[in-house]
Amino acid sequence: MPINIPRNLPAGEILRQEKIFIMEEDRAKTQQIRPLNILVCNLMPEKEKTEIQLLRLLGNTPLQTNVTFLNTATYASKNVSKSHLDSFYKTFDEIRHRRFDGMIITGAPVERMEFEDVLYWEEITKIMDWAKVNVTSNMYICWGAQAALYHHFGIGKFELPKKCSGIYSHVITDLTVDLVRGFSDEYVAPHSRHTSVSFEEVRNHSDLELLSYSEDVGPFIIQSKDSRHIMITGHLEYDATTLADEYHRDVEKGEPVEVPAHYFPNDDPSQMPKNTWRAHSHLLFYNWLNYYVYQETPFDWHYVDENIEYHI
């Protein structure tokens, strides 16, 4: 089934070339089907690249999916045009009256800051609180995962001695959990961050379950016991060249960065890296959409008790 996107979204043409089955919203309205409604709060600076990465994964399932992009009202991104945001993004005030089957909050380049010092922190916490009763399942990526762990579960982050960047091996703690169904016993995934969270705090929290981790870089896939919150501390959505782009950008800025670990062939930044995590990226999003969103969301939100609706 297709993924439904806003008319004329630039990512659409790239996805068509990749043979991703997409459908613009005008045609989707003629379909006699109950699609999943997914909200994507895109906090990444290069929003169009992130749109492509996430839409590619959301569009590779049998489920018809409507995607709404959300932008912060308290901070205007400097790396995307205002016309792009005005055309394809909503603010929280524009969607707060709606209910969604799933929500994704992406990473953000603010991880070295205290949460409360982030300009849009209050807005993000309002969105996360609203989502408790207006979204069936929530996925948080990288900084988004750290923000959710802090806000919902009281687990803070700490700064690493050096940036964690590269492709790392991970293991699964329980292969019977639906989110990691079909995963290999050991698999690789990208990380790109300056901060991390404590193994002990995650493992010892009564409301959390650690599903996957790396001996080298710590907790990776964490879910709440009620399965409403999925925290991914890395970037399974990344393209093959994303870490390379970040590395060359930082080198040009004169930042003291190391070559991403286990990434470039022969650790040579002049060589083209390969995507060795693609299959598990698709599997993670497939499992999330199927088991945590489609299987759990109400067919008709109107039958949900209106007395529990979140109000600001």
UniProtKB/TrEMBL annotation:
The active site is at C142 (acyl-thioester intermediate), H235 (proton acceptor), E237. One of its GO terms (cellular component) is cytoplasm. GO terms for biological process: L-methionine biosynthetic process from homoserine via O-succinyl-L-homoserine and cystathionine. The record marks E111 as: Important for acyl-CoA specificity. It comes from Lysinibacillus composti. Belongs to the MetA family. It is found in: Cytoplasm. The record marks S192 as: Important for substrate specificity. Substrate binds at K163, S192, R249. GO terms for molecular function: homoserine O-acetyltransferase activity; homoserine O-succinyltransferase activity. InterPro entries: Class_I_gatase-like (IPR029062), HST_MetA (IPR005697), MetA_family (IPR033752). Pathway: Amino-acid biosynthesis; L-methionine biosynthesis via de novo pathway; O-acetyl-L-homoserine from L-homoserine: step 1/1. Its EC number is 2.3.1.31. It holds the Pfam family HTS. Transfers an acetyl group from acetyl-CoA to L-homoserine, forming acetyl-L-homoserine. It is an enzyme of class 2 (transferase). Keywords: Acyltransferase, Amino-acid biosynthesis, Cytoplasm, Methionine biosynthesis, Transferase. This is Homoserine O-acetyltransferase. It catalyses: L-homoserine + acetyl-CoA = O-acetyl-L-homoserine + CoA. Its main location: cytoplasm.
